[in-house]
Amino acid sequence: MSLFFRNATILSMDKVHGVTPFSGDLLVEGDRIVAIGANLPVPAGARVIDAGRKLLMPGLVNAHLHSCETFFKGRYHGMPLEVWMLYSYPILMKEPISERLLYLRSLLTAMESLKAGVTTLVDDFFDPPGFDLNRLKLVFDAYDHAGIRANVSHCVIDKHVFDTMPYLRELMPQDLQDEVEGPSITPDEYIAYCQAVFATQHGRAGRLGFMISASAPQRCSTEMMQAGMGMAQAKGVAYHTHVLETKTQAVTGPKFYGRSLIRYMHEIGILTPNTTIAHSIWVSEDDIALMGEAGCSVAHNAISNLKLGSGIAPIRRLLDAGVHVGLGTDGLSSNDTARIFDVMRLAALLHEIATPDTERWMTAAEVLRSATIEGARTAMLGQVTGSLEVGKRADLLMIDLSGYDYMPLNRLDHHLVYCENGSSIRMVIANGEVVVEDGKLLTIDEAEIFAELGELLPAYLAEHAYLENLNARFEPYIREMYRRATVQNIGINRYQGDMPLWPGPDRRAG
């Protein structure tokens, strides 16, 4: 069925209008936007939607998410990333999550995302200890059934966990080291697995794609990183990785490679336009210049970065260097919601304390771009979604402008970034299909899913609590590693983001 939106306020985010709204009609046929303009003719058989006092805008893009954390929402606080990972991604594990819960976890992630206005998500999926095509298919099944657009990876690590952080081998007692097995996958095996995923899942339903993900340059061998990049470039997909997220990782590059992790990536050929870097907090001026020259992207996870005490990313300098910046929630354990509107507000406000130079603060328009078209570009989907343009896929939101958040209506971009929290969403369309209307998810029976989760989750979480206790024995040594790295970091990278963390002259570029 065609969808005809009449007399709407339209925020297209395209090159012509940007964040300047205009009035008009919009026609969706099949999965695409086929017309935008004033007084368009109504096609026979179209569903006509009165969009007076309503805003049409692109669906939001979540540029970085880990669905494997969704069941740990609200579970942890007061831990830096390296300690938090000990519990959310346990070193010692039992059996992987059941297939049914794996499917439901992915489905729940998509359900919450859609109701929050996210029509495209990037799921950096992690499923230790192995790589099972049938299990990954369940993730694709869930996103297919929910109706969301998704780029899904299967994150790879081929280094032993104790070799991914500085000082840990010397700190960790040998008896604890002996309990932990290392990963066994080789670059050839990972590439063969990815080929199978591309052959069976990539392009599914016209909105699901596969991407390559090497977890981080300190967690993967050079051969694994390069093999993944070769495949990403051959397939024309994003190469997703985590870089310089924490103070520990700022020390890791010089300690392991004698240079920053970004320079190491540059030298081994994996800093490219396909590269999307999650976090990018502890980057130097030299790192930023290399990233800009490479034309790579960053997924900015403002809330997660604060919750884990990681730091404030230098977004203004990254933007100035020409780096594409999208917004991500990160996993729902290090963020606790799938709401990109929350990330937008914090991202806009956070950088106002990063520098006293008010002209360098992030603007609402820049934040909106990061949440839409720039987010799509970080996933290499900029030609598909992220703006309302004829020929693009119909991924859009209809927002009610008659409520508290828009009364009175001053500057629309400011209202969307500083006032909106998703409660004004009246309709979500993904790939031309109405998936949410008046607060109701139309593709999935929410009550049925919640009831099943209510039955299955207590036993699963009890089992996870057992794993938490088992892994707690490692925590003192990881905390000491974090303390040493933090002290060492002061000498390696005194300045983080745009704000000096320790006394000294402000050495910002420009």
Automatic annotation (TrEMBL):
Q: Where is the Amidohydrolase-related domain?
A: 56-435
What is the top-level taxon of the source organism? Bacteria
A molecular function (GO) held by this record is:
hydrolase activity, acting on carbon-nitrogen (but not peptide) bonds
Q: Output this protein's name.
A: 5-methylthioadenosine/S-adenosylhomocysteine deaminase
One matching Pfam family is: Amidohydro_1
Family annotation (InterPro entries): Amidohydro-rel (IPR006680), Metal-dep_hydrolase_composite (IPR011059), Metal_Hydrolase (IPR032466), MTA/SAH_deaminase (IPR050287)
Would you identify the family this protein belongs to, as annotated? Belongs to the metallo-dependent hydrolases superfamily. ATZ/TRZ family.
> CDD domains, per this entry?
ATZ_TRZ_like
* Entry annotated with the keyword tRNA processing: no
UniProt keyword terms in alphabetical order: Hydrolase
| Organism for this UniProt entry | Rhizobium azibense
